[in-house]
Amino acid sequence: MKDTISVGLLGLGTVGSGVIKIIRENQEDIYHKVGCHVEVKKALVQDASKIRTVDIDQELLTTDADEILYNPDIDVVVEVIGGIEKARKYILAAFGQKKHVVTANKDLVALYGEELFQAARENGCDLFIEASVAGGIPIIRALVDGLASDRITKMMGIVNGTTNYILTKMSKHQLQYEEVLSEAQAKGFAEADPSADVNGLDAARKMAILSTLGFSTNVSLDDVSVEGISGLTNDDIEYGKRLGYTIKLLGIAKRDNESVEISVQSTLLPQKHPLSSVNDEYNAVFVNGESVGETMFYGPGAGELPTATAIVSDLIAVLKNMRLGVCGKSHTASYNEKKLKTDEAIELKNYFRLHVKDEPGVFSQITTLFASQGVSMEKIVQKPLREQKAAEVVIVTHKSNKKVLDSVYDALLAADVVDSVQSRMRVEVC
Ligand SMILES: NC(=O)c1ccc[n+]([C@@H]2O[C@H](COP(=O)([O-])OP(=O)(O)OC[C@H]3O[C@@H](n4cnc5c(N)ncnc54)[C@H](OP(=O)(O)O)[C@@H]3O)[C@@H](O)[C@H]2O)c1
Predict the structure, then answer these.
(1) Residues with catalytic function
(2) pLDDT at 398 over 90
(3) Model confidence over 197-238: pLDDT tens digits?
(4) String of b and e for 266-299 (b: at least 16 CB within 10 Å)?
C-alpha cells in the first residue's frame, strides 16, 4: 500500500472544512492506526474566491469536478457538496474510476442508497455513509457491525436536531412554535428554509436509511409515514406534561415477524423514557435487539467537527480495507423481502385534544363514540373554555390498531357535539 493516500473533497463548506481540520489535527494518530498518511489533494467548490474557515493553499481549490474524479492520484472521494443529482453523478463517476467514496448526504442515500451500494460493489469500491444519519453518533456502524449478530426489532430516533431544539425550547420556556423557530433561525440551529426539518422529511430520510440497514430490507422514503411538528401548540405540550409525557419528533421503526412499519411524527413519550431527556439540538437513537435488549446511542447530530469525525472515521475504515485488500466487500445488499405492515397490524395509542359543546350529555356521547369503535380510554382530562361556551377534552386511548383509531378520528370530526379536533398524536409506551 502507498505511504500516502490522497483524498479529493467534493465540497469545502461546514463539513468539508471540518474534515481538513480533523485530518490535520489527528494525522499522527491516523498514521498509527492505518500505517499511511492522508493528504487532501483537491477540494471542489463553487466559488474559489470565497473566504474559508480553514487555512488552505488556494492551489487546493478547483471548480472543476473532473480534476478530482478523473485524477489518477486520488484514491478516495469525500462527497460533502449536498444536493441530489450532481452528488449522485459524481459518486457514480468516482466508482467508475475505482475510487472509494465517503458521503454525509442523507438526502441522496435515502433516495439512491441501493443503487450507489450496488455500483460500489460492482466496481470493487467502498462506500461509507456514517455521517448521513445523526452526525457524530456512530449509529450506522453500531447497526451493521456492533449489533450484526443480533436481530433488531425496533429503532426509535430523535434524528433531527432543529426540531428537537424547537420542542425543547417550547417545553422549557412555554414559548410558541413560531417564536422559537425564528430564534432558532437567528442562532443558526434552523435553516432559512426549515421545511424539510419541521415537516419531518429530514428525519424520514434518516429513518429510511436506518431501517434499510437495521432490518436489511430495502426501505424507501415512500414507505415512511411522515408528519411534522408545525401544528404543535403549547397546549399539547402542557397537557402532555400533566399526563406524564414529553413530546418529541420521533422516528419509529418496528419489525414484527417479517413485517415492518416506519414513521416519523410528534409523539408523546413517557417522561421516564431515556429519549425524553434528549434535549436541545442533540440526537439519540434507541435500538432494541432480540438478544441485546435495549441500547441507546446519544450525541451531537450535526455540526462541523462532529460530522467530520464520522467522515474521517469512515475514511480510516476505507484505508484499513485497502490495506487488507477487501474493498467493496463491506456492504451486503438487503436480503429481506420488504413487507410493510397494514394499518390493521399497526398497534398504537393515540392522544386526542377536542373542543366540544359545553352541554349536558356531551361527555357520555363521546365516551359512547369511542366504545362503539371498540377503543377504551386510559386517561381523560376535561376543562371548560368559558369565553367560547365550550369545553376542552383530552383523551389518551389504550392500545388499538391504526385503522380503528383512524375511524375514531373520522367519527369525532363528524360528531355534532365536537366543534373541532385540535390535535391527534401518537403515544409511545416504554
Ligand atoms: N452541516 C452539518 O452539520 C451536516 C451534518 C450531517 C450531514 N451533513 C451533510 O453534509 C453535506 C454538506 O453539508 P455542509 O453543511 O457542509 O454544506 P455547505 O456548508 O453548504 O457546503 C457545501 C460545499 O459544497 C460546495 N458546493 C455545493 N454545490 C456545489 C456544486 N454544484 N459544485 C461545486 N461545489 C459545490 C460549496 O461550495 P462554496 O463553498 O464555494 O459555496 C461548499 O463548499 C450535505 O449533504 C449535508 O446534508 C451536514
Answers:
(1) 206
(2) yes
(3) 999 999 999 999 999 999 999 999 999 999 999 889 999 999
(4) bbbbeeebebbebbebbbbbbbbbeeeeeeebbb
Closest ligand 1 atom to Cα of 52 = 39
pLDDT, position 202: 97
258 CA distance to ligand 1 middle (Å): 38
- For residue 430, name the pLDDT band (cuts at 50, 70, 90): confident
- Looking at residue 189, its pLDDT comes to 79
- Output the 3-class SS for the chain: CCCEEEEEEECCCHHHHHHHHHHHHCHHHHHHHHCCEEEEEEEECCCCCCCCCCCCCHHHEECCCHHHHCCCCCCEEEECCCCCHHHHHHHHHHHHCCCEEEECCHHHHHHHHHHHHHHHHHCCCCEECHHHCCCCCCHHHHHHHHCCCCCEEEEEEECCHHHHHHHHHHHHHCCCHHHHHHHHHHCCCCCCCCHHHHCCHHHHHHHHHHHHHHHCECCCHHHEEECCCCCCCHHHHHHHHHCCEEEEEEEEEEEECCEEEEEEEEEEEECCCHHHHCCCCEEEEEEEECCCEEEEEEEECCCHHHHHHHHHHHHHHHHHHHHHCCCCCCCCCCCECCCECCHHHCEEEEEEEEEEECCCCHHHHHHHHHHHCCCCEEEEEEEEEHHHCEEEEEEEECCEEHHHHHHHHHHHHHCCCEEEEEEEEEECCC
Contact 77, 99 (CB under 8 A): yes
In the predicted model, what is the mean pLDDT of residues 111-128? 97
User: Ligand 1 pocket: which residues have CB below 6 Å?
Assistant: 11-16, 44-47, 50, 80-82, 86, 104-106, 131, 135, 302-303, 307
Ligand 1 atom 15 nearest Cα? 14
Amino acid at 240: G
pLDDT in tens, 310-343: 999 999 999 999 999 999 998 888 999 999 999 9
